[in-house]
Design brief:
With 377 residues, the chain is of the alpha+beta class. The chain has 10 helices and 10 strands. A hairpin with a 5-residue loop joins strand 4 and strand 5. Helix 8 runs antiparallel to helix 9 (343-357) and helix 8 packs antiparallel against helix 10 (360-373). 49% of the residues are buried.
Length: 377
Amino acid sequence: MDFTFSEEQQAAVEAAKAVFSGVAPDGVPSPALTPGAVAEEFDRPLWAKLAAADLLSLVLAPGYGGAGLDPIALCLVLRESAKVLARVPLLETSAVAMALERYGDEELAAELLPRAGRGDLVFTVGANGRSGHDPAELAVTARRDGDRWVLEGMHTGVPWARCADRIAIPAHTPEGRAVLALVPRGHAGLTLADQVSTSGEPLAEVRLDAVRVTGREVIDGEGAWEWLRGLLATGTCALALGVGEAVLAMTSAYTGKREQFGFPIATFQAVAVQAADRYIDLRAMEATLWQAAWRIGSGTGGALPATGDIAVAKIWASEGVRRVVQTAQHLHGGFGADTDYPLHRYHAWAKQLELSLGPAAAHEEALGDLLAAHPLG
């Protein structure tokens, strides 16, 4: 089997590295020292650079001005963005754009997707529902009223909601079917209440009070929301991998310079073993990530549905990124908590990603249910 990335995917990584090379992880106030959000907006200058490098159109079809690449390419770029804590809605915009292209109205796609690829339009998505525990689509009801849909309910913890042009709202119909509505941010009946993430980024509670949207603004294709939900989860795993790799590199550099008893502490067996364990975590996070991204992008069948591979990736990402940053803090000693040093920022991002992914035990239970429903062998 050939596990190497294609030339196009490798080119996307190189382009991403070039764009993100100028990003400073401490470019905004520290979340540890800021009572509210660290900034009201995402990094618009960086967003423009991503657009100029064709990284915002990476996963769009050539007909919409894109390169037509797959979720693996998106995850490769997301991993690079997380290494520098890039404050951009790259995952949300790209994932919703891919769902619109795959399942949505062709006229709406032709109207919105080229703008998204140029960086002129930003998508976000409510994936947490009311609490982050129950399925997100159950938080909002969607019913037909003539040629329109009426939406009622709320989503919490929606990233970049005040900056996005369209908010993708998963909802359920009276028949129990999941649909996805692309609601303009300033639409009548839609209100936002400010929230702040663990990493200090702005979130919002999105309330919908008899919000009426046109039929073409609702993606009701079979499996659309489930596919988008899987892509968002896999992209979050890619972000966790990028954060973990950056943190382990910082720890390696620090322990190679920090001396005790006349020797770098990296030469001590207890330090080396802990670092090696975290390296193993990262390699497991990486392997399970690419498996999940490949299943989503290719649609290839397997012994289990793609949700099984996504669950395994989430287990490793949620547990792995937490272990990596905890070990890093331990090996850095008090220096790791210094707010003039960027490690505490990575710790905050890792905790937010862990919370977004959810507890590993829940994914293990879901995986067990899949195994029970699809006996192997």
